[in-house]
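LOG
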Amino acid sequence: MEIRIRAVNPANAENPIHDDEFARRLGYRGGLVPGVDLYAYLALLPEQAWGPSWLAGGSMWARFTRPVYDGEDVVGRASERPGGLDLELRNPADQVCVVGAAEPVDAEPPPAPARYPATPLPPDPGPPAFSEGQPLGSLEGHLEVPDAAWPAREANRLLMANVRLAPWIHVESRVRYLAPVEEGERISVRGSVAKLWERRGHRYCELDVAVLSATEDPLAVVRHVTIYELAGSPPGVSPSATPSS
């Protein structure tokens, strides 16, 4: 199974790593297309294979291994394996930029909502000062469902609501879809810092995030990995930074 799509950078992205001029100063060819959008492109393959039921009880993970730039024509491929699909996204040079996998049904029981207690947001978010096990302030609002990447988008929103970030890079998302969702429904996004590490001067965090309904039922859970501080930043950022974990 294969899809072809033109990668597009969003207008007015909050993260300057998606801005062409800024990213070129770091040594990239242009602004990096966000990982959540690459996830959405790749998710078209399991959506085609399994239909709406996948988004109510399946799972997918995606790791972003190489930048994709605005306007590039990318190719997504899915190959069958026992129990699911192996996924990849390639750029025009036939280089693998995203690897992943999807399963039509996730057999694990949903997590208990009590594992994700509501926590106040910081009134004035500062630079990241994470510790493992640290709870994050919760986001309350209404769900926008533009594509299958909505749980990862909510994890991004939760991160940005809790800390003031310099340029950062989305590395990986592992999503479990637990229930059907509707655009505009009331949600609560909650989470904690599951893991921290450093590699080649880049500081990584893995978030454990849940999106709950107005009745506290889990809609999705996400393990969300980012480079929240690039080597040498601030004030300088290494142009050799690559989104790999």
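LOG (cont.) second protein
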Amino acid sequence: MSHVKETTKKKKYSLQDRKAVKGTAERPRLSVFRSNKQIYAQLIDDIAGNTILAASTAAKDMESVKGKKAELAKATGKALAEKAIQAGIKVVVFDRSGYLYHGV
């Protein structure tokens, strides 16, 4: 019986991407998670190990936004960008978290 943990392709790609992408306070990592109903985005400082900003379709300020998944994702990105500009963050490193870089 093997005790080797089986990983999914998405997890494998996510770990490969994470090796190359590191976030700092000046240039945080933009991490995106998609569930079947919601989309979540956060800016992470990997050196300090904390989340600087976050936005999602599940947030109270996004309840009024309606539409398809792509429209909700665009609204979430816009909300996160506005928060980042207010916090003085202009450049981020995109972490695609194992997802393909297209679509939502």
